Amino acid sequence: MNELDTLVDEAKVAFSKAGTPADLENVKAQYLGKSGRITELMKGMAQLSVEEKKTRGAAVNVAKQAVEAALNARRQALADAELDIQLKAEALDVTLPGRRRQAGGLHPVSRTMERIEQIFGSMGFDVADGPEIESDWYSFTSLNNPPNHPARSMQDTFYVDMKGDDGIPYNLRPHTSPMQVRYAHQHIKKHADLVKAGGTMPEIRVIAPGRTYRVDSDATHSPMFHQCEGLWLGENVSFKDLKVVFTDFCRTFFESDDLVLRFRPSFFPFTEPSAEIDIQFQSGPLAGRWLEVAGSGQVHPQVVRNMGLDPERHIGFAFGMGPDRLTMLRYGVNDLRLFFDGDIRFLRQFQ
């Protein structure tokens, strides 16, 4: 065995003892580095004759290739060992049962919204939907709530960096009442030909559920909350109709005739007269307590004018209620924030 064979064998042994890729690179330097043994042999051929260089060069080159092959083999062996360790650490027991994806369910507030729409739909009310970013005119002025009106103090709270034609910034709507005016405009336009022909315009009967926004946050209020406004306008719609409609709605919603309503005098710029609506359960954990659930009243004549109608001919009522609060009462939840925390454990109870 000549010196080159011995060198190759020594390199193979040294490579085999390297336990990590870093150790292997250090050993490689001893043989193939700038000052490695193979490199030094190749440098030493400069002093040989032409014939000796051919013979010696070929032999050294064979030895170099053998060392490089041993080096690559050891690199692959270390990589395979590392991969094997990783695969064992990340191994999956395919004999275990799979994790089933649980079926989702409607959010409790969504359930309430659907229930409200179904009940009022059975009474002939349309459902209207509209923009959550509103102009000042639709959110306030059209509802008899002009700039600097005291009633705005708790409502004109969220604005966006965009102005309307009047130069006033758009707002995140504090209620869905703007949809009453928008719907009335659409209703008038839809039946314009009928009216021109001498016909009678159909009554306006609509609810407007949706998200609304105000600066408020505690156990019974949220900066983002839901509201449902209702409107019934015709030529002979009275406060008595409001009492009948809302009483029927509450008893149907809570599935109980054992329910009393109270209409308490109040003030809203867009209705006159106005009333807060309270309910009282006659049995159960809430029995005997008056609970406020809505605001209501006869639509103010100025609001009727802003809708494009004659208040001497078209009268009716409007109401606004909070589906979030109705959801709390229906399911016995005492903190509104639980609905919006996104806790699956809480929400799963309603599936």
Brief write-up:
With 351 residues, the chain is an alpha+beta fold. The chain has twelve helices and ten strands.
Layout: helices, strands, pairs:
Blueprint lengths: L2 H15 L3 H12 L4 H8 L5 H40 L18 H15 L3 E2 L5 E2 L1 H4 L19 E5 L5 E4 L5 H13 L1 H5 L7 E10 L10 E11 L4 H15 L5 E10 L2 E11 L8 E10 L1 H6 L8 E7 L1 H9 L12 H4 L4
Parallel strand pairs: 1-5
Antiparallel strand pairs: 2-4, 3-4, 5-6, 6-10, 7-8, 8-9, 9-10
SS class? alpha+beta
Cα distance spanning the termini: 82 Å
User: Rounded to an integer, what's the Rg over CA atoms?
Assistant: 41 Å
Order of helices and strands: HHHHHEEHEEHHEEHEEEHEHH
Uncertain parts: none
Overall 3D shape: elongated
Tally of contiguous helical segments:
12
The fraction of residues assigned to DSSP E strands is 15-25%
Query: How much helicity do the residues have?
Result: 40-55%
Strands, count: 10
CATH class membership of the largest domain = Alpha Beta
Provide the residue-averaged pLDDT: 89
Instruction: Find the CATH superfamily of the largest domain.
Output: Bira Bifunctional Protein, Domain 2
Strand line-up of the largest beta sheet: 1-5-6-10-9-8-7
How many domain regions? 2
Largest sheet: 7 strands, mixed
Name of the CATH architecture of the largest domain: 2-Layer Sandwich
What is the CATH topology of the largest domain? BirA Bifunctional Protein, domain 2
